[in-house]
Design a protein that fits this description.
alpha/beta; Rossmann fold; 5-stranded parallel sheet; 4-stranded mixed sheet; about 45% helix; about 20% strand; globular
Length: about 200
């Protein structure tokens, strides 16, 4: 289906819900799915690579990109900026690539307004206790930061009903399979296939 426009997908969920793990497996299994690389002002975690996991920049550079109108969306979260460069996303969609935006809940609102046909998915942890355990396993945050992240997580989960789909990340395999099913279903929607319907009926 590379001759058709790709599907734009929003993936949101609280910190520790497993978004990065699910997306890594999703991309490994599907050649026609890409994850848009976000830009952030937060510090790199151990093992993260600039230009692969994020574009790591300082606040002045990020603000410059905002002023230039080069950001698809951006938000401030836990004291740091996160955002999505617009040009690479539009190019991939034109080339038939399905693009996933891993963004915060507040950033999802802006994308919905800009792209009415965007598919929105909320990745839910099995429970708050599981979420806390996953955050602690990272070993990268102090107690104050962990408490703040859990508070934000509860607020984000309350907004899950704003999304088109909810996936409970109990196991990575099941979550990835659910994600793939959603994209396949969206590809088959009549609203995304009006051109081919017109071509077929025109030849009857």
């Amino acid at each position: 289906m590379n001759d058709r426009k790709g599907v734009l997908v929003i993936l949101s969920g609280p910190s520790g819900s497993g978004k990065d793990t699910v997306l890594s497996e999703l991309v490994a299994r599907n050649d026609d799915i890409r994850v848009s690389i976000s830009m952030t002002t937060r510090k790199k975690r151990e093992g993260e690579i600039d230009g692969i996991h994020y574009y790591f920049v300082d606040r002045d550079y990020f603000k410059k990109k905002i002023d230039e109108g080069s950001m698809l969306e951006y938000a401030e979260y836990a004291g740091n900026y996160y955002g999505t460069p617009k040009a690479p996303v539009d190019e991939m969609l034109r080339n038939g690539i399905n693009v996933v935006l891993e963004i915060e809940v507040q950033g999802a609102d802006k994308i919905r307004r800009m792209y009415p046909d965007v598919v929105s998915i909320f990745l839910m942890p099995p429970s708050l206790s599981t979420l806390e355990a996953r955050i602690r396993t990272r070993g990268t945050e102090d107690e104050e930061t962990i408490a703040h992240r859990l508070f934000i997580a509860e607020q984000e989960i309350r907004r899950a009903d704003e999304f088109g789909y909810v996936i409970v990340n109990d196991t990575v395999t099941d979550a990835v399979e659910a994600f793939e099913t959603i994209i396949r279903a969206e590809k088959l929607k009549v609203s995304r296939n009006k051109q081919i319907i017109s071509e077929v009926t025109g030849n009857v």
